[in-house]
Amino acid sequence: MAASYKPLNTADENSDCCSQNGDWHGQPLRRLWLFSSANLVLLVVQLVLLATHLVRNWGNAGSTAAIQATYGFDANYMSIEFEYDWVWEEDAIETAGTIALQRDDKGDVTEFGTISMFHALHCVTSLRRELQKAWEGKHVALNQNEDAHWPHCMHYLHQMIICNADDLIERQHMWNHTIPFVSGAEDVRQCRDAQRLYDMYEEMKL
């Protein structure tokens, strides 16, 4: 005797899998839909959290990465004698870190800017040169009315220091084991890696 076909689900009035209108798809599909929707929502939430994490890390890459360092002691930077001019004569410092931000189709610069670290070092160099002039007995401008350069630099450095607001507490040390003083030379600091700015300048300089 040939076997008769028997459907997997039979729509009758007592079937739990059927809807009130006799649609045999009813509740199983509804459960599947709810399950799939819940998983989709969880997936979207995870993707949003992952994207947020990646964006934050990308935005901070290079800018907040810190290295531990101390200022130390270097007499080459502690003199206005002309024989030490060479330590201040880096190209990036001389140009205040001027870089091309945009170029036209011909390669001509249409917009430029300066890298702040090199601008600050340029300003220190400017003040050092004024001290050299004073040492030689030459006239040094008193304010911005006589010279627009170094007075700007003094203000610029003042504002940069306040802007950075370094809150490190520098510890006292003993000079010759007898005199307590604070130099800040040996305190361990969290410093940014300056090399990436040198690399940026070399890649984008005018």
From TrEMBL:
Which residue spans adopt a coiled-coil conformation according to this UniProt entry? none
Annotated transmembrane regions: 32-51
The organism's superkingdom is given as: Eukaryota
Any idea which UniProt keywords this protein has?
A: Membrane, Transmembrane, Transmembrane helix
Q: In which pathway does it act?
A: Mycotoxin biosynthesis
Q: Name one GO biological process term.
A: mycotoxin biosynthetic process
The entry assigns this protein to a family as follows: Belongs to the ustYa family.
Q: What is this protein called?
A: Uncharacterized protein
Question: What organism, scientifically named, is this protein from?
Answer: Zasmidium cellare ATCC 36951
